[in-house]
Each structure stands twice: as C-alpha cells, then as structure tokens.
Amino acid sequence: MKKMLGLLAIAVSLAAGPAWAGEEFCDDSGGGPDPPETTESGQDPGSGSCEVNLAYTLSMLDTLPSEIPRGIRDIGFSDTLLRRLRNPFNEVEIGWDIHEVTLGMDTSQPSEARMIEWSFRPSDKYGVERMLAISLRRKEGEVSVMLDWLQSPAPDWSYATPSRLEPVWLDHRSIVLGGADVINQSAYLKWVSDAVVVGVWTGEQLQEVRFPLPSASWKPVRLRNSLLLGAPTQSGTQVSIGWPDAFRHLWSKPVPAPMGLPDEPVAPPDPTVPELQ
C-alpha cells in the first residue's frame, strides 16, 4: 500500500509556483532592491522572505502518472551564494522555517511529505554523489523530521522522477517535533569541511544531527524543494517553508554532473594548454 501511494504521488496538483527547471526558487514576489553580491562573513544567514508553498491533491481524473511533476524548485550553489551563506564560524549555513504543515486529513494513518533534497559531489572524482533527503512524517499523532543520508545511484539522481535505480542508505535519523500542529518551526542546514549538519529547534532545545562526508573535496551542488516520490503522502498535504532571501537574489541553476565513470579521478588541467582569459 505504501509503495502504491508513493507511485500515485507522481499524479499531483502542486500549488502555483515555478515549473520544472524554472528560473526562480521562491513563490512569493518579495520586494526591495537586490542586496550587494558580496558581504562580510558574519551576516545572519537565517530565513528571509523567500517562501515555498507545496500542496498535494490526488485527482481521480489522473489515471496515469505524469512523467515530470510540476512545482520543482532547484537552486545551485555558486561561489557568490556560498559566500553569502557563511556564518561567523565560516560554515555554510542555510536557515529554514517550517511555517505551516498539514499532512492530510486521515490522522489514523501515517502520512509523510518528502520535501527536500540536498546533493553533494566531490571536486576530484566523477560519477559519485551523496544526498540528504528530508521528510516530515506524522504517525500516531506525532510529527517528526526524517533525515535519510544516501549514496545516489547515479549523478543527478532524484526522488522527483520515477526510476528503477535505488539509492544506498548510509544513515537514518529522526527528530520528534511534537503533536500534529507544527507552526513556525526553526531549523538549519550546515555544510562544514567534513560533514553535513541538520539542526532543529524543538521548543527551546536545539537538536543537531551530523552526517560525515568522505573528504573535504565534497561540496553542495543542488538543493531541491518539492513534494517528492517514494513516501506515503496523503491527499490534502500542504507544507509552507521559508528559505533565506539569498535564494531569491542569488539564484542560479544547478550545474549538471560531468560525464565520467564512477570513482574516476578528475583529470588535472594540461599545463601546455593556455587558459582562456
């Protein structure tokens, strides 16, 4: 039954927002001038006015799943964006807020919204990626943040589209938020030299989970925000998330993975070939 729900989650109607491979990330229009491209380290990287609204409604008219779901929000990590997101400890920190969550109407059954993917790729190898997948799950009246640390089966793989490939599960953690009413819940994502960190405030207590990276050469390449496949998502699910305002002003497309065999080292530049100026 859960597998069937995961497949049916492809046939969704998402809230108005950018389509697949769109030219923006935020749903709201924002306002005010663009901030300067560079800023001193120490600027608060917390959530601003960039809001993403997701909704899932199973339509009885959709007898066949569509190949590409609508409402996919992607952002790449340019050097400018990474500089903007650095906190006073020189860590890349992405503050995000769960503004409001409704995980369907049938509270007697579990419901889960898989909604965030954060992908990483090494700069010195081809064909390998790791991903942090984040879900909100309600079970027996309790809502938790579900964190899956995965080895992607192929470059640029995602839960956003149907695939016969399956990721390798490296680790799984969960953080209990409390009852079914989740409003204005603060959290953050961090990329440090050797790990990916998730922090969630539950009341006045901070709970933090850490997932190790293989080496310091691994860097973030894409953050995806959408209602994704492979989870038992109930019709009527709605999630509203606030992201840093830098996601609006410094948006760029993710860079596709370079071609190469898995674990193949990246060739060093040829010193006899002059660089283009």
Average pLDDT over all residues: 79
The percent range for strand residues is 35-45%
Element-level helix/strand string: HEEHEEEEEEEEEEEHE
The counted number of beta strands is 14
Describe what you observe in this structure.
This protein is mainly β and 277 residues long. The chain has three helices and 14 strands. The strands form three sheets. Strands 1-13-3-9-10-11 form a six-stranded antiparallel β-sheet. A hairpin with a 2-residue loop joins strand 6 and strand 7 (142-151). Residues 1-22, 30-47, 60-69 and 269-277 have low confidence and may be disordered.
Compact description:
This protein has helices at residues 2-8, 79-85, 246-249, and strands spanning 50-56, 73-75, 92-103, 111-122, 125-126, 130-139, 142-151, 168-178, 183-192, 195-202, 205-212, 218-225, 237-243, 264-265.
Layout of helices and strands, plus pairs?
Elements: H1 2-8, E1 50-56, E2 73-75, H2 79-85, E3 92-103, E4 111-122, E5 125-126, E6 130-139, E7 142-151, E8 168-178, E9 183-192, E10 195-202, E11 205-212, E12 218-225, E13 237-243, H3 246-249, E14 264-265
